[in-house]
Write a structure and sequence with these properties.
This protein is α/β, with parallel strands linked by helices. The protein contains nine helices and 15 strands. The two termini are 29 Å apart. It binds zinc ion (ZN). One of its GO terms (cellular component) is cytoplasm.
């Protein structure tokens, strides 16, 4: 018996009077960062990125596979582990998350929990042209074909390292098609890789969908058990763009983070698990040599914390932050991410967006070191916000 997926309207979206602040036109087809923590790149930034950046990016160390090992994922779908929340880092910002397999009101337990794949990229390069500078320096945890059956594919924005068309094309061609979720402005992109329109869900910030997956029962009967979760598109501070033309005028597609929250049967005594995927995000805008602790930070994360906190598991980016003048607006430093962890009221977090592609100028193995220091500095308990090996499956009760 195969599993079926339904996607319906979920919790009422936040009511906004008139156009939301992140819409750059009345139709909601152009977007902007509405935050005081945002700064547009100026001519000096553009000069830097065009003429200096590539020369300053580091080379991958020879022993990269020792420094950041890749393991074969264990996934841990079965036995007692089925009841746990599970997350496997595939590499870069790609995560495979399985929500706990919960019993229904009749006591029937599904064979597995609902599964979400975030920002999958299995390609060898994160660019349309395979230049050496855009090549992976560590492999993904497994081949795409080795991934377990997926229910929802969730995309944060259209940059090449997050929306990988070859990967999405293969996922869209699976006989049992997952549903795809992305922020506004990405429908054409999804449909052009072969996702049927009925399986495309393109959302604005604060909009939600309820995903119901009918999963065969563990007891071997012909019954199915629904695994249900709400998926909410939430704000972050970033941008979009796949071609130089995308730099003309306000962005045509939106960027987002996402919250996945279990929906449990009525009268359930357990509390639903909440997972936060930050996508690609900055936290503030600083100039080089500026005191980072001065100036505004992105308000989105406190808002997310108020609405959804505590977050059981957050997947947070810690790499691609230097030089700060250019990168701080769009990418968190480890300290920024430690502060995001606190703002969203996370209990646990796994680091991502480092160690796969050389996007920026910080030393390749610096993010985990700086994360440790940052956690100590801002008072995050040891072991609460960790870096894992690629492919390491983490389990949470
Ligand atoms: Zn990006």
């Amino acid at each position: 018996m195969s599993t079926s997926i339904r996607v319906i309207e979920a919790v009422k979206s936040v009511n906004v009077q008139g156009s939301p602040a992140h819409w750059a036109n009345e139709q909601g087809t152009r977007f902007k960062n509405p935050w005081t923590s945002w700064r547009e790149h100026d001519w000096r930034d553009m000069y830097y990125i065009l003429f200096k950046h590539n020369r300053l990016t580091p080379k991958a160390p020879e022993n990269m596979s020792t420094l950041l090992p890749t393991r074969k994922p264990t996934w841990n779908h079965e036995g007692d582990d089925a009841q746990k929340l599970k997350a496997t880092w595939i590499g870069h910002a790609s995560f495979f998350v399985e929500l706990p397999a919960r019993a229904n009101t009749e006591g029937r337990v599904p064979k597995r929990g609902a599964r979400i794949l975030f920002d999958p990229i299995f390609s060898t390069h994160c660019a349309p042209i395979k230049l050496a500078g855009t090549a992976r320096i560590t492999p993904p945890a497994c081949a795409l074909e080795e991934l377990p059956e997926v229910d929802a594919v969730v995309i944060s924005h259209n940059h090449y390292d997050h929306l990988d068309r070859p990967t999405l094309t293969k996922l869209a061609a699976l006989p049992r098609k997952p549903h795809f979720f992305a922020p506004l402005g990405n429908l054409a992109q999804l449909m052009s890789v072969g996702v049927p329109q009925d399986n495309c869900h393109v959302l604005d910030w604060w909009q939600s969908r309820r995903v119901e997956v009918d999963i065969p029962s563990q007891d071997g009967s012909d019954k199915t058990v629904p695994a249900v979760f709400d998926l909410t598109c939430t704000p972050n501070q970033h941008g979009e763009g796949r071609t130089p033309m995308d730099r003309m005028g306000y962005p045509k597609s939106l960027w987002a983070s996402w919250v996945a929250r279990e929906v449990l049967p009525d009268l359930s005594s357990t509390s639903p698990k909440t997972v936060y995927f930050a996508g690609d995000t900055g936290y503030r805008a600083v100039l080089d040599e500026q005191n980072e602790d001065e100036g505004p930070v992105c308000e989105a994360f406190k808002q997310i914390g108020e609405k959804f906190g505590p977050i059981d598991l957050a997947l947070l980016p810690i790499g691609a932050y230097a030089p700060r003048r250019f990168m701080s607006t769009v990418h968190c430093s480890p300290k920024d991410s430690a502060l995001v962890f606190k703002d969203i009221k996370a209990k646990r977090a796994i680091a991502m967006h480092w160690g796969a592609f050389i996007l920026t100028t910080e030393p390749i193995m610096e993010p985990p070191k700086k994360l440790k220091e940052a956690c100590e500095e801002v008072g995050i308990e040891e072991g609460a916000f960790i870096c894992t090996d690629i492919g390491q499956t983490m389990l949470y009760d």
